[in-house]
Write a sequence for this structure.
């Protein structure tokens, strides 16, 4: 069974969702929790069986799907993807467990289970077309979640979300077809397997164009400045659960794809575009932090701060060295935990007051002390306090980029300081001072169901801040081999210099290539 | 003194006619039965038609077996040409007919299917389109085209709505114009080369190195216009939305598949040699037509308020997409054309049969058309299963993986990439994104809006449903979801057939 654990992880939730259609409405919540708990347990089992010292792909499965065109159902995980998969099952579990009262809860739970399938699929896929299938399919449940349970502008927001991402991915699809075509030209066979593509060394001008095509698909998903305009709408209108999953997992697809596709496939182009992308990312960090400061709606503050943090992840990724890339992957996990928790927290007061405007609140620390404490911890984690989860990732990302350019790393550091300003200011508006609005006097504090979601997230945010090693080590192992691969594939002298070889003894990771065949 | 004509029956190879003659026999039988005893129920005629279509399918399988052993066959004074294209396209024509004819078994009785002539005409039409694809003789193509089209005009007019009559007349007028263009174009090619056989025309033109370029241009333009009417390329598409709106949903769905594949085969046969002649202006014309057809039709589809008109514009856009394959002209592209069209057939079959299920006998007061978007508002609340199915078909049309049409688009764009048409590939991809919007519009109405009519209890969505229609929809659903299983065998089969016919 462990050999097919990835397929089980992908298809168990969707099979369960189909059966879920038969279940009576009042019992569906328990069913959803049970299914997502099994899914989470399976993902933990995957971690337990995972060999953290091996850099190659593990639990590989391959079934020919369309061999005539080189499309195979190939799955596998390495240190880069495994923790994001676990995070996704975890977030789905606590998301379903803490789901508030809403209309059509049955449809919501079924949709969440389908969404779980697509998320696991994206991170486990090792064939570009399979990756693309799950990548696109993930839009549909999210479209429904935003469009059916969202705020007043939900239809506009959901369509904007869908079309933006859909357009970018179609350009990426053309890029993928080009990659397959080049592979066909080089070897005479069609293949969409990512591990096959890793062996392909492309001329630099082709790399630049392909990098641009993939970049469009990924950058819209992340979302990078200037493609970020769909995200505040989506977050602003989405129900709490939608925002949580969007921020915690779906945005990570873009940054993950940069590491899985762009860096190892196009090392020369990555070096070529390193500075332009870093500049975009720094604009994204500072500009969206300033926009966040100007928001009146607490959910928008968190949405923009989410974009701002994604900027740091991009900077870490494009540091193109082991520290930066590992840091960015760790920050993806950290951001998933922290942003997810913050959106949960906003959902808590929204459920009570049905408003998210900060001026309506003030002095909440008096009426909701537990809530204020958790919010405080998460806010500290969000601004990257040492001993919280985001600190590790942000530090490593910036350290990595510092080796490429001190000035840009410094500017990105400024962005983090701006981040601290607006988060603290929002915290002050919400929690400190006297209670001015009578409605806030008797607000009930967080209840058990909400604590069920918030306590584990808080625990993770602190534990992984203090002791990141069990997660950081496997990530490091896999990242080293990716960076080594990039170094070996790089053709120009500049690229060789910019991408230091972490494992000078070992050449291209043979194990992963052999396992692919 | 004239020599007595002496032809052995053997050399005529009459078996090549079998797939076309079977529906003709069926049609005649239906007419005879009606003469002997009138007033028989439509279910009888549906089943008889299906039996003959199945026999036709068997004859086709036989022909395809012969083809895979012996290669291209000629017959009947070398007028019939049974090559891979002819067999593949006949499979699509016959298969689609088999799936569309049971849609006449409706819950409510409609004017058209109460006449046995409906079924006779349907079979005649099939036979006409089969003739059209199984020859490279321009005269026989013309005969097949007109047999099929005239029957189709009548079939549309049989539907009892004011708009149907208008649609039929409109289609007839445009069709007559197209027929005129076709004969004029053929005349020019005949004058140039002294032959009406496409391969002869190609040989003669190549031999004198396209000396009379002006005349070739005139002939090509007339042919393009004529075939453009048939496969609804912009700017010859104007009839499409009105005719689809006027025709019953099964006929509209049928029209979006069968006459078009026949048109594409003729286009492919005719333009294959013209494309490979490397005449620059020809490629420019086709390129422009393809891009304009895809893009403009998408723009018009965005602003429609009726689902059927939206699907009409969408089918124009899909035709443009497929026309790109004809322009690219590689084996991979031609394979993609067939693959795309097979997958498109399943998806369109599903979406039009869903519309047909929700067809009311009479239009309610104050409602202008049968299938306005607002009719589907809030469908998920009253009829969740139906809403999910319709969503599925819309997503497939939009090209969301892993549903059927995605694989067609993938292979089609892949063929453009392999042939070096990078810009075209990008245009195709971006057009799919534009198309996403209007398909999504219906999804938004179904899943996210509140029902317009508070009394709507969901019955309207299945008011016309019978077991037969539900079964057909079920087949379409299975075809749409599980297409990925069938892609590989289909690809291998189609590639072999297309390659062995020299395209």
């Amino acid at each position: 069974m462990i050999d097919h654990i990835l397929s089980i992880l992908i298809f168990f939730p969707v099979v369960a969702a189909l059966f879920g259609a038969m279940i009576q409405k009042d019992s569906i919540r328990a069913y959803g929790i049970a299914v997502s708990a099994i899914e989470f347990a399976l993902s933990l089992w995957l971690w337990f069986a995972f060999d953290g010292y091996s850099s190659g792909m593990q639990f590989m499965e391959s079934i020919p799907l369309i061999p005539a065109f080189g499309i195979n159902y190939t799955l596998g995980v390495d240190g880069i993807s495994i923790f994001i998969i676990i995070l996704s099952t975890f977030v789905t579990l606590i998301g379903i467990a803490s789901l508030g009262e809403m209309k059509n809860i049955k449809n919501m739970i079924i949709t969440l289970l389908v969404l779980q399938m697509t998320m696991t699929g994206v991170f486990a896929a090792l064939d570009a077309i399979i990756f693309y299938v799950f990548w696109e399919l993930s839009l549909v449940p999210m479209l429904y979640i935003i469009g059916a349970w969202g705020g007043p502008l939900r239809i506009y927001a959901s369509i904007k979300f869908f079309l933006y991402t859909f357009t970018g991915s179609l350009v990426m699809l053309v890029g993928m077809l080009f990659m397959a075509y080049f592979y066909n030209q080089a070897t005479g066979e069609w293949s969409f397997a990512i591990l096959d593509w890793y062996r392909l060394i492309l001329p630099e001008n082709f790399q630049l164009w392909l990098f641009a095509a993939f970049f469009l698909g990924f950058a819209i998903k992340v979302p990078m400045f200037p493609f970020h305009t769909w995200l505040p709408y989506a977050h602003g209108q989405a129900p709490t659960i939608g925002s949580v999953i969007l921020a915690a997992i779906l945005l990570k697809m873009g940054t993950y794809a940069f590491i899985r596709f762009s860096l190892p496939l196009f090392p020369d182009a990555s070096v070529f575009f390193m500075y332009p992308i870093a500049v975009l990312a720094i604009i994204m960090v500072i500009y969206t932090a300033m926009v966040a400061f100007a928001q009146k709606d607490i959910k928008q503050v968190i949405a923009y701060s989410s974009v701002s943090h994604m900027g740091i992840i991009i900077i870490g990724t494009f540091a193109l060295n082991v520290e930066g890339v590992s840091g960015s992957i760790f920050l993806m996990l950290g951001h998933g935990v922290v942003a997810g928790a913050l959106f949960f927290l906003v959902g808590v007061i929204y459920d009570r007051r049905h408003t998210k405007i900060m001026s309506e609140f003030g002095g909440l620390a008096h009426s909701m002390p537990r809530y204020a404490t958790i919010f405080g911890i998460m806010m500290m984690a969000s601004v990257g306090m040492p001993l919280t989860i985001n600190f590790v990732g942000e530090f490593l990302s910036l350290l990595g980029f510092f080796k490429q350019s001190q000035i840009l790393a410094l500017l990105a550091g400024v962005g983090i300081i701006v981040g601290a300003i607006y988060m603290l200011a929002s915290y002050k508006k919400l929690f400190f001072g006297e209670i001015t609005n009578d409605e806030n006097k008797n607000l009930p504090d967080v209840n058990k169901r909400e604590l069920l979601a918030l306590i584990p997230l808080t625990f993770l945010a602190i534990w992984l801040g203090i002791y990141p090693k069990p997660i950081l080590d496997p990530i490091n192992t896999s990242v080293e081999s990716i960076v080594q691969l990039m170094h070996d594939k790089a053709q120009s002298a500049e690229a060789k210099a910019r991408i230091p070889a972490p494992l000078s003894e070992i050449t291209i990771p043979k194990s992963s290539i052999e396992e692919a065949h | 003194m004239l020599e007595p004509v002496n032809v052995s029956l053997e050399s005529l190879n009459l078996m090549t006619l079998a797939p076309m003659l079977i529906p003709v026999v069926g049609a005649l039988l239906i007419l005879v039965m009606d003469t002997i005893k009138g007033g028989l129920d439509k279910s009888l005629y549906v089943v008889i038609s299906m039996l003959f279509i199945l026999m036709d399918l068997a004859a086709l399988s036989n022909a395809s077996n012969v083809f895979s052993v012996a290669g291209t066959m000629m017959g009947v004074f070398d007028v019939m040409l049974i090559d891979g294209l002819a067999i593949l396209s006949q499979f699509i024509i016959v298969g689609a007919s088999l799936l569309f004819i049971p849609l006449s078994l409706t819950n409510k009785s409609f004017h058209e299917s109460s006449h046995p002539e409906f079924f006779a005409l349907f079979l005649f039409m099939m036979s006409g389109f089969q003739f059209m694809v199984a020859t490279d003789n321009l005269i026989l193509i013309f005969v097949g085209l007109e047999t099929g089209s005239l029957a189709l005009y009548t079939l549309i007019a049989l539907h009892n709505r004011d708009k149907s009559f208008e649609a039929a007349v409109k289609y007839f007028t445009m069709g007559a114009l197209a027929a005129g263009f076709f004969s004029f174009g053929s005349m020019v090619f005949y004058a140039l080369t002294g032959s009406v056989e496409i391969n002869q025309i190609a040989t003669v033109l190549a031999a004198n190195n396209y000396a009379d370029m002006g005349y070739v241009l005139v002939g090509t333009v007339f042919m393009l216009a004529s075939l453009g009417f048939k496969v609804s390329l912009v700017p010859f598409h104007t009839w499409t939305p009105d005719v689809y709106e006027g025709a019953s949903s099964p006929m509209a769905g049928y029209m979006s598949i069968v006459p078009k594949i026949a048109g594409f085969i003729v286009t492919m046969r005719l333009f294959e040699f013209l494309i490979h002649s490397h005449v620059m202006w020809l490629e420019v014309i086709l390129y422009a037509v393809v891009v304009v057809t895809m893009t403009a039709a998408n723009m018009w589809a965005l602003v429609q308020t009726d689902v059927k008109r939206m699907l009409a514009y969408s089918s124009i856009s899909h035709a443009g997409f497929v026309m790109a394959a004809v322009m690219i002209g590689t084996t991979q592209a031609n394979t993609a054309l067939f693959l795309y069209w097979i997958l498109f057939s399943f998806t369109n079959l599903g979406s039009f049969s869903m519309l047909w299920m929700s067809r009311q006998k009479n239009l309610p007061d104050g409602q202008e058309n049968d299938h306005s978007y607002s009719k589907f508002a809030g469908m998920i609340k009253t009829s969740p299963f139906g809403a999910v199915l319709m969503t599925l078909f819309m997503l497939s049309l939009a090209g969301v993986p892993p549903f059927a049409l995605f694989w067609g688009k993938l292979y089609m764009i892949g063929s453009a990439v392999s042939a070096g048409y990078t810009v075209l590939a990008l245009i195709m991809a971006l057009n799919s994104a534009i198309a996403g919007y209007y398909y999504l519009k219906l999804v938004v109405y179904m899943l996210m809006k509140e029902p317009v009519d508070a009394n709507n209890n969901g019955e309207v969505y299945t008011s016309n449903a019978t077991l037969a229609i539900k079964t057909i929809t079920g087949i379409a659903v299975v075809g749409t979801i599980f297409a990925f299983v069938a892609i590989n065998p289909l690809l291998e089969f189609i590639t072999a057939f297309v390659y062995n016919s020299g395209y």
Remarks:
- Chain A has two domains: 1-257, 273-466.
- The radius of gyration of chain A is 22 Å.
